[in-house]
Structure formats: C-alpha cells, structure tokens
Write a structure and sequence with these properties.
- By secondary structure, the protein is of the alpha+beta class.
- The protein has one domain.
- It is built from 2 helices and 3 strands.
- The protein has a 3-stranded antiparallel beta sheet, with no helix packed on it.
- The longest helix is centred in the N-terminal third of the chain and has 11 residues.
- The protein is globular, with a radius of gyration of 14 Å.
Length: 95
C-alpha cells in the first residue's frame, strides 16, 4: 500500500540495522483513529510485528508532536506494574 508518509526503502534499512531479527520486505498498514501522530502496524515476512509512530505530514507544532518525548516516556514506562511494549528505537529525520 503506497503511503506518502512511509519511505519504505529507508525504513527497511533502518529496521535492518537497529531492530534485531527484522528483515525486509516489511509491510506497513496505517492504523486509523489516532489523535495526532500517525501510527502504522509493521510486519516482516516471518510474522514479527511492530508499531511505527511518526508526526503527521505538513506544518505542525513541535511540542504537539514531540516524538523524542514520546519515545522517552515509553522507554521509561516499561515495568511490571505498568505494561508497556519495549521501544525498538527512535530515528530523528530532517524536517
């Protein structure tokens, strides 16, 4: 599925380098219903799955779509009393 918010070749290269066991080709499916940042289900041919979050396209307030803050909170929230999936990483891109 073509989606202008997904740069599949670069994302596949990033996943291959930073996410152990992830290998192309990857499938990206947009999950609707989000309030701000875009969310995608990502799957590889072996059936492994991840969630991908990114700011929306176009002009935006940095504070409203702060992916660094979101990554930091998710990374620190993983503990037995608060179930939260492990973050596989964060990639900063040019605006």
């Amino acid at each position: 599925m073509a989606d202008e918010a997904i740069d599949q070749p670069n994302l596949e290269a990033w996943f291959s380098e930073h996410v152990p066991g992830a290998g192309p080709p990857l499938a990206f499916e947009r999950i609707s219903g989000g309030r701000s940042n875009l969310t995608y289900a990502v799957a590889d041919v072996a059936g492994r799955r991840w969630a991908l979050r990114r700011p929306p396209l176009g002009k935006r307030l940095a504070s409203a779509h702060d992916m660094v803050r979101e990554h930091r909170i998710i990374s620190r929230s993983r503990r037995p009393t608060f179930p939260c999936r492990r973050s596989s990483g964060y990639a900063r891109t040019s605006p």
